[in-house]
Specification:
- The structure holds 2 protein chains of 2 kinds.
- Chain A is mainly alpha-helical.
- Chain A has a domain of about 200 residues: ABC transporter involved in vitamin B12 uptake, BtuC (Orthogonal Bundle), CATH 1.10.3470.
- Chain A has 14 helices and 2 strands; from the N terminus they run ααααααβααααβαααα.
- In chain A, α2 packs antiparallel against α12 and α11 packs across α12.
- The N and C termini of chain A lie far apart (about 60 Å).
- Chain B has 2 domains: about 170 residues, Rossmann fold (3-Layer(aba) Sandwich), CATH 3.40.50.300; about 70 residues, no CATH class.
- Chain B has a 6-stranded mixed beta sheet, with helices on both faces. Chain B has a 4-stranded antiparallel beta sheet with strand order 2-1-4-5, covered by helices on one side.
- Chain B is globular, with a radius of gyration of 18 Å.
- Classes of the chains: A mainly alpha, B alpha/beta.
- Chains A and B meet through α8 and α9 of A and α2, α3, α4, α6 and α7 of B.
- Chain B: GO terms for molecular function: ATP binding.
- Chain B: Keywords: ATP-binding, Nucleotide-binding, Transport.
- Chain B: InterPro entries: AAA+_ATPase, ABC_AA/LPS_Transport, ABC_transporter-like_ATP-bd, ABC_transporter-like_CS, BCA_ABC_TP_C, P-loop_NTPase.
- Chain B: It comes from Streptomyces carpinensis.
- Chain B: This is ABC transporter ATP-binding protein.
Chain lengths: ~325, ~260
C-alpha cells in the first residue's frame, strides 16, 4: 500500500472503530432512547477480546464475538432495569452503567490487569477485516433507515403513543435498541483492543461518552452517514489541530457548541436540506400550499356548535 | 336506522363501567358503551367531558382505574395497546399526529405495515407495506394528489385525512375516530361522513367522537351522551339530541335543537 496509508494506519483504524462506537450511541438515539450503554459495551468488548486472546488464545473474531454476546446480554438486562426511565434520566443511568464498568475494570485484579490494564493481546486482526465489518454494519443500518423498519423507528422516536396505536411494540423495539447498541459498542471495543494489543481503564472511560456524542451531534444523529462524517472529523481533527497545541480542547468545544446551536441536524442535515431545496425548486407539490402544524388545536373547537363557513376552518393556516 | 334493542347486532367491542382517575381528577367515572358490529356509534359531550380519555382507555393507552373492556366478548384490559391494533382496532387522534419527516404516502404505509407480518429480524429487510391497503386508503380519502407531500405542507383538513387514511390502511375491524373533522370545512365534513357511512355498509364497526351535532345525527346509528365522565343517556340520535339532560349538558342555555 501507499506511503500515506502506512503513515496514517492508526488513524484509519481509529476512524472505523469510532464509526462503530458512534453508531452504538446513534442507533438507540434514532428510537429516542438516550442511552450511553454502548460505551460501557465498548469496555466489555475491549476487555473480553483482550482476555480471550491473552488467556485462551482465541482467534480474533471469536474473541470479539464473545465480547459482543456478553454486551448484548448486558444490554438486554440493562434495558429491563431502566425500562421506566426516559430522556435525561435514562442518559444518566446509562452513564452510571459505563462508570461502574470502569470501576470494575480497575478493581478486577489479574483478570482485568487493574489500573494498568492488559497488554499483549496479539491477534491476526487486519485493517481490511475491520473495514469489512464496518461495511456490513453500515449496510444493515442503512437498511434500517428505509422502508418499513425506517418508518417504525421514526414512529417510535417521534410519537411512541401513535406507534403503539399502529401496532408497533415500542417496548420491544427499545429493548432491541439496547441489544444492538451493545453489539456495536462491543465490536468496536474488541477490535480496538486487538488492533492496539492493549486495553486499560482509561481507554473505556467517560471521555468516550463525550467523543461519541460529539461525533453524532456534529455529523448528524439520524443516519449512519452522519456518524461516518462525525467519526472522520473527530479522528482526524486532532492531527490537523496539532498546530494550536493546548488549545485543541477549546477548538473542539467551540465546534460542538456552534453545531448544536446553529445546525442541530448536524452536517448531514445541512447537506440533505440543501439537496431537498434544490429538488423542490424544480417542481412544487400540487395542492399542498397551506401549512398546518400537528400540535395546534383546530379552529372550530372553541365554538363547537356553530356551523363552520367554507373558508374558515384550517387551524394552522400560514 | 332505529333498530329496536333486541334486534341489535352483536357487540364487537364493549366497555362497561369504565373509570379513569388521575389522582383526584375523575376524567372518566363509570362510562360504558357497546359497539355493535357494522354500526356507527357516536359519543356526544362537551369539551372536557372525558371523551378522549375514554378512547385512550379503550385503546389501552391509559390504564383503567376500574371497569371491563371486551373485544368479541373476551376481556382485554391486560392486552398491550400494540396487540390490540393487531387484533383490528384502529384509531385516530384528536390532534393531528403525523411523522413530519415522512411523506403522506409513508405516513399511510406506517399503518399498512401492521398487516405486512413478520416481526423481529425479518422486518429489517422488508421494504414495502401491503400496497393494496395503502392504495385503497389513499383513494378512499382522496389523497392521491398529495401523496408525496410532507405533513407540514398540508392544510389542516388534508392532514386529518391522512390520519384517517393511516388508520384505514391497518385494515381494521373497529375504527375509533376522535374528532376526525375538527378543522375541516363543511364540504370536507360531508365527505368524511359519507366515507364513514360507506365503510359501515361494508361492515366496519365505528366509534365517532365529534362536536358537529348535525353531522353526528346524520352519520351515527346510535348516540351516547357523556358529561363529566359519566353517561347521560343513549339511544337513537334524534332522541338523544332532544333529551332535556343532553340539551342541558351539551347545548347549554341556547337549547337549540340541531336534529
Amino acid at each position: 500500500m501507499s506511503y500515506w496509508y502506512d503513515a496514517h494506519l492508526i488513524l484509519i483504524q481509529s476512524t472505523f472503530v469510532s464509526l462503530l462506537l458512534a453508531l452504538s450511541i446513534q442507533f438507540p438515539l434514532r428510537m429516542g432512547v438516550f442511552s450511553f450503554a454502548g460505551i460501557g459495551s465498548y469496555g466489555i468488548g475491549a476487555y473480553a477480546a483482550a482476555i480471550m486472546t491473552i488467556r485462551y488464545s482465541w482467534p480474533a473474531f471469536a474473541a470479539i464475538g464473545a465480547g459482543m454476546v456478553v454486551a448484548m446480554v448486558a444490554g438486554y438486562l440493562l434495558a429491563l432495569l431502566v425500562s421506566r426511565l426516559d430522556g435525561l434520566y435514562l442518559g444518566m443511568a446509562t452513564i452510571a452503567f459505563t462508570l461502574i464498568l470502569t470501576v470494575v475494570a480497575i478493581n478486577g485484579g489479574s483478570l482485568t490487569g487493574g489500573a494498568q490494564g492488559l497488554y499483549g493481546a496479539i491477534s491476526t486482526l487486519q485493517t481490511g477485516q475491520v473495514i469489512l465489518v464496518c461495511a456490513v454494519v453500515v449496510v444493515l443500518l442503512a437498511l434500517s433507515e428505509r422502508g418499513r423498519m425506517g418508518r417504525r423507528i421514526d414512529a417510535v422516536r417521534e410519537d411512541p403513543e401513535l406507534a403503539v396505536s399502529v401496532g408497533i411494540r415500542v417496548i420491544r423495539m427499545r429493548r432491541m435498541a439496547f441489544v444492538v447498541s451493545g453489539a456495536l459498542g462491543a465490536c468496536a471495543g474488541g477490535m480496538n483492543a486487538l488492533l492496539r494489543t492493549t486495553v486499560s481503564p482509561d481507554d473505556v472511560g467517560f471521555s468516550l461518552v463525550v467523543l461519541a456524542l460529539t461525533m453524532i451531534i456534529v455529523g448528524g444523529s439520524r443516519s449512519w452517514a452522519g456518524a461516518l462524517i462525525g467519526s472522520v472529523i473527530f479522528t482526524w481533527l486532532p492531527q490537523v489541530l496539532q498546530a494550536v497545541g493546548d488549545w485543541q480542547t477549546v477548538v473542539y468545544g467551540v465546534i460542538v457548541a456552534l453545531t448544536a446551536v446553529y445546525v442541530p441536524s448536524g452536517l448531514l442535515g445541512v447537506a440533505q436540506n440543501g439537496y431537498r431545496r434544490m429538488r423542490r425548486r424544480s417542481g412544487p407539490v400540487a395542492g399542498a400550499t397551506e401549512k398546518a402544524t400537528g400540535s395546534e388545536e383546530p379552529g372550530g373547537d372553541s365554538a363547537p356548535l356553530e356551523p363552520l363557513s367554507e373558508d374558515v376552518p384550517t387551524g394552522g393556516t400560514r | 336506522m332505529n333498530t329496536p334493542e333486541d334486534a341489535a347486532p352483536p357487540a364487537v367491542l364493549e366497555a362497561q363501567d369504565v373509570a379513569v382517575h388521575y389522582g383526584g381528577v375523575k376524567a372518566v367515572d363509570g362510562f360504558g358503551l357497546k359497539l355493535e358490529a357494522g354500526r356507527i356509534c357516536g359519543i356526544l359531550g362537551p369539551n372536557g367531558s372525558g371523551k378522549s380519555t375514554f378512547l385512550a382507555a379503550v385503546t389501552r393507552l391509559v390504564p383503567l382505574t376500574r371497569g371491563r373492556l371486551m373485544l368479541d366478548g373476551e376481556e382485554y384490559h391486560n392486552t398491550p395497546a400494540a396487540s390490540l391494533a393487531h387484533r383490528g382496532v384502529a384509531r385516530t387522534f384528536q390532534t393531528v399526529r403525523l411523522l413530519p419527516d415522512l411523506t403522506v404516502l409513508e405516513n399511510i404505509q406506517l399503518g399498512a405495515d401492521l398487516r405486512a407480518g413478520g416481526g423481529g429480524v425479518k422486518q429489517w429487510f422488508r421494504r414495502t407495506a401491503v400496497p393494496e391497503a395503502v392504495e385503497e386508503a389513499i383513494e378512499r380519502t382522496g389523497l392521491g394528489a398529495v401523496r408525496s407531500a410532507r405533513p407540514g405542507e398540508l392544510s389542516y383538513g388534508m392532514a386529518r385525512r391522512v390520519e384517517i387514511a393511516r388508520a384505514l390502511a391497518t385494515r381494521p375491524r373497529v375504527l375509533l375516530l376522535d374528532e376526525p373533522t375538527a378543522g375541516m370545512n363543511q364540504a370536507e365534513r360531508r365527505e368524511v361522513s359519507q366515507l364513514m357511512q360507506k365503510l359501515r355498509d361494508e361492515g366496519l364497526t365505528q366509534l365517532l367522537v365529534e362536536h358537529d351535532v348535525p353531522m353526528m345525527v346524520d352519520t351515527c346509528d346510535r348516540l351516547v351522551a357523556m358529561k363529566s365522565g359519566e353517561l347521560v343517556t343513549e339511544g337513537a340520535p334524534a332522541e338523544v339530541v332532544r333529551d332535556p339532560a343532553v340539551q342541558e349538558a351539551y347545548l347549554g342555555k341556547r337549547g337549540r335543537n340541531h336534529a
